[in-house]
Amino acid sequence: MPSVPSVLFVDQSGQLGGAEFALLQLAGSCTARSEVLLLSDGPFRARLEAHGARVQVINDARVAGIARQASGLNCLRVVPGILRQVRAIAAHARTFDVLFLNTQKALVLGALGKLLHRKPVIWYQHDILTREHFGRVQLSVIKWLVRFAVDHVVANSQASKRSLIALTGIAADSVPVIYNGIDADAFKRIDGSDMAALRRQLGLPEHAWLAGLFGRLAPWKGQHIALEAMARLPGVHLVLVGAPLFGEDAYAQRLHEQAEALGVADRVHFAGFQDDVPAWMKAMDVVLHTSTEPEPFGRVIVEGMAAARPVIAAAAGGVTEIVRHQRNGWLVKPGDVAALADAIGALRTDPAMAQRLADQALVDAQTEFSVDQYLQRMMQAIGRAAR
Ligand code: UDP
Question: Is the dihedral of CA 213, 216, 220, 225 positive or negative?
Answer without folding.
Answer: positive
